[in-house]
Amino acid sequence: MDKNNERECNEDLIRERRKCNFNIEELTNIVDGGKARTARRREIQRLLINDPEFLDEIPQDYMSHEDRYSNELRKSAHLMQKLADQESGHDIHQDIGALTGILKDGNPLMVHLSMFIPAILGQANSEQQEKWLGRSLRNEIIGTYAQTELGHGTFVRGLETRATYDPTVEEFVLHTPTITATKWWPGGLGKTCNYCVVMAQLYTQGRCYGPHPFIVQLRDEETHRSLPGITLGEIGPRLGLNSNDNGFLKFENHRIPRTNMLMKHSQVLKDGTYVKPLHNKLSYGTMMLVRVGIVGACSRSLQYAVTIATRYSAVRHQSEIVPGQPEPQILDYQTQQYKVIPQIASVFALIFSARSLSKIQSSVTAKLKDGNTDLLPELHSLSSGLKALSSSDASWGVEVCRLACGGHGYLASSNLPRTYTGTTCAITYEGENTVLLLQVARYLIKSYRSIGKETGASSVSYLADQTSLASSSSSFSNKALVQAFKLSALSLVAEAEARLQKLCDMGQEFYHAWNYCSVLLLKCAEAHTRYYICEKYEQTVDSLKASEGVKNVLQSLCRLYLIYHITLTHGDFLKCGALTPRNIAVLEGEMCDLLAVLRPQAVSIVDAFDIPDELLGSTLGCWDGNVYQRLYDEALKSPLNKTDVPDAYYKYLLPLMKSSL
Ligand SMILES: CCCCCCCCCC/C=C\CCCCCC(=O)SCCNC(=O)CCNC(=O)[C@H](O)C(C)(C)COP(=O)(O)OP(=O)(O)OC[C@H]1O[C@@H](n2cnc3c(N)ncnc32)[C@H](O)[C@@H]1OP(=O)(O)O
Ligand SMILES: Cc1cc2nc3c(=O)[nH]c(=O)nc-3n(C[C@H](O)[C@H](O)[C@H](O)COP(=O)(O)OP(=O)(O)OC[C@H]3O[C@@H](n4cnc5c(N)ncnc54)[C@H](O)[C@@H]3O)c2cc1C
């Protein structure tokens, strides 16, 4: 699509784009993280878009379960080959965002890239990396991360798969003792992978040392047949991500060499002696790494959905605002703006938080190399909180965008249903959100109780700021609103801690008191993480060196985000005195003003996300706004339209209609 050729474009969209009062390219660079990154993303996307191998013969929704899998495997393999062939040597992990949309509904290599390789990087020692890292990066072996079992996903300590060390032959014996110990869910495990990292309970010298990672060959490298002692299969259709072959796995006393235990952090020596790690949760590192990645992935899903909903809302006309006048664009309804524009604001919130989190991750990783694990709990808490809020915000945001498109948003060809199912699974995988938020709450209560002790953990240092509990601000600057979030979080933590203490003082065991307070604890964790997101948003926009136009747009989006979230949880702000009922009413009014200010820029802001039509894959969201023709053309692809009268008519309908004659 030639974006300079207005003649092919819907007139509403042309008018919207003429209202733009900021430099779109500059905003695109901010979204990508710099000019160089924009150029790189575009280069990769150009490479993919122009390649006919990535086209589907028929829309995926008309394919069988098997065909979907094999079609996406074909494209995934081609993608890997293509990226490997590039002279510039693409780093697939760095460039993962550029690939969004090219593979549809998950893909069989997803967990190989996002967990198996990172597990080798983070859990294998240098000899082990020598043996497996290069091979997995070159895709000579394909792996997955097999942790979850039929009986346990959340509670990693409850896993039942056993790895028992036999010092006489220096081997581990992997065994699945019960049906509930069957590995269940790992992506690509069913039919694609020939290796995997298995999390299993380590037994040596008669003792259990808890879950540890082991690398296991599952299939013969020549024939791809599963090895003796190993039962493998695929678990069947799911709500989404159906192009992936999530699988099951059972071991029947399957032996692997001692050196297949990933030994970067803990070891089992030849005689069976266990050497413990620097920190007992280092074996959970792969999950933490991916949680950080999920925040960025969620912001991309939301960019897709909100691009579709905003463009469609500019093209779609319905009903009337002024009686008797022409039907307005639905984007002119304030209620429609309230659905769509806060989701645009949310995209930037997630982008800026993801960047801040990834910086913290890099510094924690650097410290770990020097044997310093002090900031691991801080990273665990932040990555858990941000994974939880980003996945729930993005899922809700995508769903709101779908609802904002009325009936057409329900159609597969809008690409909103698949975007939703592909996003909502992030609420569950890589740590179910409630469980992760309770981990954050645990860290908050612990930090609150150790006020005065220097931990170096900056995200919770505000808990020591007791003076702010009393100081309700009368100013409404963005900074002041961020302070209100801080006050609300601090006061919820103080309330939860007091409630816990009271129950304990009344004689309850701490763990019962914890469960009894867990709804409030969840709120603490959400408020704390929301405060973190708001603070990063405000600081990033405030310190941004940008043109006036771009800065104004981002300031308004940031302010909208702050006010939107205050109104959603206003009870917490009132309860702690951070804001008065009058303040809330004023802010609600200002939110409507902000919607009106941002309304004329909405299409241009989503244009700045710069998602090519070929990747957006939506009849409703295409650049030129030619929505109705596309909807019609897509409908014609339905196999039911191959004939005027379907076979089923003769088989079932005709006999029914004639039965009463
Ligand atoms: C580099 C490239 C990356 C690219 C990424 C791109 C992303 C793309 C998008 C997605 C792509 C792929 C899809 C992924 C598919 C999904 C795969 C999966 O789902 S894999 C399975 C995931 N499973 C889980 O996440 C399980 C969740 N459960 C847990 O993590 C743990 O069970 C628990 C943390 C809830 C509890 O653990 P437990 O051992 O029981 O802990 P205790 O209660 O005894 O102790 C808590 C104690 O430990 C600290 N802790 C916990 N975890 C950590 C950690 N990781 N690091 C540091 N510390 C940790 C915690 O803070 C507590 O400390 P205390 O001091 O005791 O309070
Ligand atoms: C699409 C998809 C892909 C996946 N890919 C992989 C993969 O590649 N590898 C892999 O190993 N796994 C994978 N998983 C599994 C996933 O990690 C688990 O499903 C997830 O960790 C949740 O665990 P669970 O299913 O045991 O849920 P459960 O823990 O049984 O959750 C059920 C309910 O119980 C609640 N609950 C549980 N524990 C607590 C608690 N302590 N406090 C309060 N409430 C609690 C939860 O909040 C939830 O409401 C995948 C899952 C999905 C959906």
Automatic annotation (TrEMBL):
GO biological process: fatty acid beta-oxidation using acyl-CoA oxidase; lipid homeostasis
Binding site for FAD: T148, G187
Organism field: Cherax quadricarinatus
Pathway(s) per entry: Lipid metabolism; peroxisomal fatty acid beta-oxidation
GO cellular component: a single term: peroxisome
Principal cellular location given in the protein's record: other
Molecular-function annotations in GO: acyl-CoA oxidase activity; ATP binding; FAD binding; fatty acid binding
Lineage: Eukaryota, Metazoa, Ecdysozoa, Arthropoda, Crustacea
Active site: E430 (proton acceptor)
Domain of life: Eukaryota
UniProt xrefs under SUPFAM superfamilies: Acyl-CoA dehydrogenase C-terminal domain-like, Acyl-CoA dehydrogenase NM domain-like
Name used for this protein in its record: Acyl-coenzyme A oxidase
InterPro entries assigned to the protein according to its UniProt record, in alphabetical order: ACOX_C_alpha1 (IPR055060), Acyl-CoA_ox_N (IPR029320), Acyl-CoA_Oxase/DH_mid-dom_sf (IPR046373), Acyl-CoA_oxidase (IPR012258), Acyl-CoA_oxidase_C (IPR002655), AcylCo_DH-like_C (IPR036250), AcylCoA_DH/ox_N_sf (IPR037069), AcylCoA_DH/oxidase_NM_dom_sf (IPR009100)
